[in-house]
Amino acid sequence: MMTTARRFTLSAATLIASAAAFAQPPAQDAAESPDRAAGDIAEVQRPALQNRAEVTFGTTHTFGAGFKDLDGEVGSTTAAANLGLIFPLDERSRLNVSLGAEETWYHFEDAAAFAPGFDEPWDNVSRLSISALYSRAIDETWSWFAGGSVTSAGEHGAEFEDTLTFGGFGGVNYKVNDKLEVGAGAVVLTRLEDTMLVLPVVTFTWRFADGWSAGTETGTDGLGIEVKHQWRENFAYRMRAGWDSNSFRLDDEGAAPEGVGRDQRLPIELAIDWDAAPQITVTARIGAILWGRYELVDAAGNDITEEDTDPTAYFGAAARFRF
Fold first, then answer.
1. What is the percentage of the chain residues whose pLDDT exceeds 90?
2. Strands annotated E in the chain
3. pTM for the model
4. Are 80 and 59 in contact (CB under 8 A)?
């Protein structure tokens, strides 16, 4: 199973990954949140007819990374929480609802060159999201899904209505055999000061050996490939490589009034999951960001600054409670 503290809200990249992974028949046992169920594509079967809930708390700290062509550096600390609800509607279908909240503190040092006239191009960023997804098993091999989400992402002081983005997604999943599942679909997303994004989605889960699996995974604001090994009954470790992206509305007093900040990165990580109790899972993660990019965009969508960063490291932890 996958637990992550990277993000618990459905930003653009999260929605892409979630939509793809939800192309599985509904889950049968462990009480999963929608995001969590999206990741556990190796364990998805028909639902038990009982409502379930999951609460996840997590934090991640990214060490400062220097700008490649400018003076200064930037790091961040994130705290997040997610409530996931599953409502089985009958033996073949279910409704997943997810509510997420997150706060990110960006730490800029000597970064005046990134946003001339300002020591920090933006301050704290808040993110709220709600998503819903309906999934239905057609038979033992085919299933389909459809859903949507609303996300608010913005610096403190930004106008709420200007922080909103919307998404919709749908697709199908096919179980080739007991070891391989594949899925396909499409995602439609609005973006802050950018054109609407329409993307195809392809997913897979491959259980290639006893206790081992590989497949696409959702980190709640990104997408990637993950390999998992169930080391012991209550311990598992996971290796992930992927792409994470965050965009957020800025306030009307900073370096780009009512503009947009963007934060992109390519992380690789190792995570260990410990089932401390039947309903509690604790996760510790450590990783490296191989590439990062920060952008400052004005209210008309024009780039003010776009700067890559040097590699850096991060660590995080999360706790998941199932009911």
1. 73
2. 52-66, 73-88, 93-109, 125-137, 142-155, 164-175, 180-191, 194-209, 212-218, 222-232, 235-249, 260-277, 280-297, 303-309, 312-322
3. 0.84
4. yes
CA distances from 87 to 47, 111, 115, 323 (A): 9, 48, 47, 13
- For tokens 């590439």, the residue is 291
Residues in contact with 130: Cβ distance below 8 Å, sequence separation at least 6, in sequence order: 97, 98, 99, 100, 149, 150
Question: 79: buried, middle or exposed (CB in 10 Å: 19+, 13-18, 0-12)?
Answer: middle
- Please report, for residues 160, 161, 188, 192, 257, the alpha-carbon distance to residue 195 in angstroms, rounded to integers and kept in the order given: 20, 18, 11, 8, 20
CB 78 within 8 A of CB 7: yes
Q: How far from the centroid of its chain's Cα atoms is residue 251's Cα?
A: 24
Distances (CA, A) of 271 to 143, 185, 213, 227: 30, 28, 15, 11
**Mean pLDDT over residues 30-54, rounded?**
49
Residues 6+ apart with CB under 8 A from 210: none
Q: H-helix or E-strand containing 12? A: helix 12-21
Q: Are 32 and 79 in contact (CB under 8 A)?
A: no
pLDDT tens digits along 197-245: 888 888 899 999 999 999 997 543 557 899 999 999 999 999 999 988 8
The number of CA neighbours under 13 Å toward the Cβ of 113 is: 12
Sign of CA dihedral 114, 290, 288, 183: positive
DSSP 141: S
For residue 245, CA distances in Å to 86, 97, 135, 177, 278 come to 27, 23, 26, 34, 33
Give me Rg for the CA atoms of the chain: 19
